[in-house]
Amino acid sequence: MTLRILPLSLTLLVGAAHADLLKDPQWQAWLDSGKTAELTRAAQARAKAQPDDDQAAVALALAAVDDNDAARLESSLPALQACADKRPQAICSYTLGRVYGQQAMTASVFKMPGLASKTKEQFVKAVEQDPQLFEARSGLAQFYLMAPGFAGGSEAKARELAADVQARQPEQAKLLRFLAAAQAKDWPGAERELASVEPGDDRTLQRELRNGWMRLGAELVEQKSFDKARSVFEAVQREFPQHAAGPYGLARVALETQQPDEALRLLERCRTLDSADRYPVDYRAGLAWQAKGDKAAARAALERVVQNRRSSPRVMEDAKRRLAELA
Q: Binning pLDDT at 50, 70 and 90, where does residue 84 land?
């Protein structure tokens, strides 16, 4: 299977995208690669020297979202709110929406509706303030697709967001239609949208396109279409050779096809590549060691999963269950 992820691999070498959230190229690179410790240190230093610096406020908040750090999420709100109220701009509204959305994911049933409402409100405001900010439009589309109807969810409104930018930003519209198709489990339709995207030198579109192929590949793994999934992940690896996504996906296929040694080799390669921290590498390594019968190595890997705040609830729950079995 051959996938056209980019029109030319050389487009990856072209200059910075116009849609970066953070104006400092180093800060954006740290955000993209999941190096939140470095980003946080730099943003804290700037915030100390310039308390009203909106970029520092945004960077600190996005790093906290990435790390799923409840205390830092809460402490990021005053500066973001000041930015949104006193110096209204889409990036602050969008980031407020991200913070509220992250808080909603772990909130009690009593607090969740209010946080969901705030999430939607800020995403709507960000789209109104800058209709071309793809992150805001994508965030709002995902809210509409994932929220239940009584909380403001609406597939029709998500598709309207794509239709609104079809004329002026057709590649963004394709990615938004992909989200709707994936949520509806229309995987052939989702694949058609991805295959038609031409991101050019826009790093935001490149990133979202890579994420889309990874989502499709993961679905193919769930469907046990391992050959097709392998082709998807191999294509991702070819187009993004310095990124952990491709090897991580291939490691999943290796695990599912009873090749734990190959999975471990690929996972070790993952650790050396950009954005490795964004993937549950230790969790997959724990599964591979468990498949090989090495209980000590499996326990060590799964214990790191439990200690990692970035672990998803599903991964965390399964890691704890496996540790109990290994005890």
A: confident
Q: Identify any residues that bridge with 274 across adjacent strands, giving them in sequence order.
A: 243
What's the predicted TM-score (pTM) here? 0.86
* Residue linked to tokens 């005890």: 327
H-helix segments, 11-69: 25-33, 36-49, 54-67
CA distance linking residue 209 with residue 197, whole number of Å: 8
Tokens of 60: 């600190």
190-195+206-268 homologous superfamily: Tetratricopeptide repeat domain (1.25.40.10)
**According to CATH, where is 1.25.40.10 located in the chain?**
20-101+118-141, 190-195+206-268
pLDDT tens-digit readout, 165-181: 999 999 999 999 999 99
Q: How far is CA 107 from CA 102, 235, 315, in A?
A: 9, 38, 19
Asked whether 210 and 203 are in contact (CB, 8 A), the reply is no
